[in-house]
């Protein structure tokens, strides 16, 4: 499967996660799952799913060459690096 198809599927999964975020069907559920309230277990699973989708998005849907110094086809840290200057008013004596 090519990167464009992966990106399309991952964006669809992200939209599905957006719709499933508010679990209106578990608000009044007083059952315990694994010793925890049903809504909490749902959100633990939701966080795991969201982390997996966002991690896959970084791998498959991140546009190449968007970082400073990055070139297409090269790892993102392969470019030349420069030190970040301190904020104004906070020099060496500040």
Summarize the SSE layout with pairings.
Blueprint: H1 3-20, E1 32-33, E2 36-37, H2 38-60
Antiparallel strand pairs: 1-2
Overview of the molecule:
This protein has 94 residues and is mostly helical. The chain is flat. It starts with a helix and ends in a 34-residue tail after the last helix. Helix 1 (3-20) packs antiparallel against helix 2 (38-60). A two-stranded antiparallel ribbon has the order 1-2. The relative contact order is 0.11. Helices cover 44% and strands 4% of the residues. It has a domain at 3-60.
Query: Quick check: average pLDDT?
Result: 80
Q: How are the strands of the biggest sheet laid out side by side?
A: 1-2
> In this structure, how is the largest beta sheet organized?
2 strands, antiparallel
Q: Strand content of the residues, in percent?
A: under 5%
| H/E topology pattern | HEEH
Give the helix/strand class: mainly alpha
- The helix content, as a percent range, equals 40-55%
Q: Give me the number of helical elements.
A: 2
Distance between the termini: 54 Å
List how many beta strands DSSP finds.
2
| Rg from alpha-carbon coordinates | 21 Å
* Residue runs with pLDDT of under 50 for 5 or more positions: none
Task: Write down the overall geometry.
Answer: flat
Question: Which terms summarize this structure?
Answer:
94 residues; mainly alpha; 2 strands
Question: What's a quick, concise take on this entry?
Answer:
44% of the residues lie in helices and 4% in strands. It contains two helices and two strands.
């Amino acid at each position: 499967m090519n990167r464009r198809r992966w990106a399309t599927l991952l964006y669809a999964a992200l939209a599905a996660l957006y719709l499933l975020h508010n679990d209106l069907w578990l608000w009044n559920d007083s059952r315990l799952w694994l010793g925890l309230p049903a809504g909490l277990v749902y959100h633990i699973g939701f966080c795991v799913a969201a982390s997996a989708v966002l991690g896959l998005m970084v791998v498959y849907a991140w546009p190449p060459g968007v970082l400073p110094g990055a070139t297409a086809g090269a790892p993102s840290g392969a470019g030349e690096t420069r030190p970040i200057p301190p904020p104004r008013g906070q020099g060496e004596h500040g």
